[in-house]
Amino acid sequence: MRCPHSTEWRYTVTKPIILTGDRPTGPLHLGHYAGSLRSRLQFQDSHEQFLLLADMQALTDNAHDVGKVRSNVIEVALDYLAVGIDPERTSICLQSQLPALAELSMLYLNLVTVARLERNPTIKDEIRTRGFGRDIPAGFLCYPVAQAADITAFRATVVPVGEDQAPLIEQTNEIVRRVNTLAGRPLLPEAVAIIPRAGRLPGVDGRAKMSKSAGNAIALSASPDDISAAVRAMFTDPDHLRVADPGKVEGNVVFTYLDAFDDDHDAVEELKARYRHGGLGDATVKRRLDDVLQALIAPIRTRRAELATNRDHVVDVIRRGTLKAREITERTKRDVMAGLGLFQL
């Protein structure tokens, strides 16, 4: 809304604010859909939602390939719109075009020790997984502070994250409490982590995480042949050698995917019982999953292809969302600077 007697645009928030987003390092896949995109579609009605295209965060381990990050900004935005994200109800914004985030990050770095960053369980695990050793990019180590800046700049009170990301929200709230203590008043709200019940979707090869880089993901833009090939290659029960053999459902990727994407839960439970008892072959279960995934991805793929023919529209969606986000984040930055007593011009 526009304030009376002012030329400055002022945006009034009437719903709880939720911040979420993705690193633009490649098109999104079924793991993103199960873990976050479905819930984001629901949040559009109940929350003021911002989706952050986290290109600056992507550079923490992709600084050697800036072109990949730049080109995937549009690709991820296309995926958002293709699954049903409505830019009239959800603002899609670009992290690098919100200078207040960087300024708040610099401020918050003075409130956190290196030892505390290194103790963060999420960061410790990622450092070990990526084999950084002591050659940790400074931006990667300081990511919890940058995320705190993202969350607080929007004054978000709800942040959907995977269970492994919960320590990042805890550290954000530590920074919030420190800022509020220094300001002598509740300047910033704390955030609550929302952890999806679905959990992390495994890769088609049975590994713990579906990942673009690992080559074990099914993209939301996958062709019918690509989907079928991925389903055929899926890990099942290695001891289920004959149709008559009893099979194990737990750890069976095909059933994990059916649980995540098949809306006929009773039918899936019946298939599980038959599989455990013996008499149900892997090929039959995979055919059902193939049908389910084809039906899920087909309209997303079609819509994405339509949107891709007008990339100017996608850029405009990002621009409008970013301008809206910039107003909010700049206002928060000014409030924090004033609340902490920094010199003002």
User: What is the CA-based Rg, rounded?
Assistant: 22 Å
Order of helices and strands: EHEHHEHHHHHEHEHHHHH
Number of helices: 14
Spatial shape:
globular
Low-confidence stretches: 1-11
Could you tell me how far the N terminus lies from the C terminus, measured between alpha carbons in angstroms? 26 Å
Query: Strand tally, please?
Result: 5
Give a quick account of the main beta sheet: strands, pairing sense, barrel closure.
3 strands, parallel
Helix content: 40-55%
The percent range for strand residues is 5-15%
Mean pLDDT: 91
**Strand pairing plus helix content: what structural class?**
mainly alpha
Widest beta sheet: strand line-up: 1-2-3
Short description:
By secondary structure, the chain is mainly α. It contains 14 helices and five strands. A three-stranded parallel sheet has the order 1-2-3. It has a two-stranded parallel sheet with strand order 4-5.
Characterise the protein shown here.
It is a single chain. The two termini are 26 Å apart. 39% of the residues are buried. By secondary structure, this protein is mainly alpha-helical. The chain has a three-stranded parallel sheet. Strands 4-5 form a two-stranded parallel ribbon. Strand 1 (17-22), helix 1 and strand 2 form a beta-alpha-beta unit. It has helices at 30-46, 55-58, 66-83, 99-109, 114-119, 121-130, 138-141, 143-153, 166-183, 224-232, 253-261, 265-277, 282-308, 311-339, and strands at 17-22, 48-53, 90-94, 158-160, 192-194. Mean pLDDT is 91; it is low at 1-11.
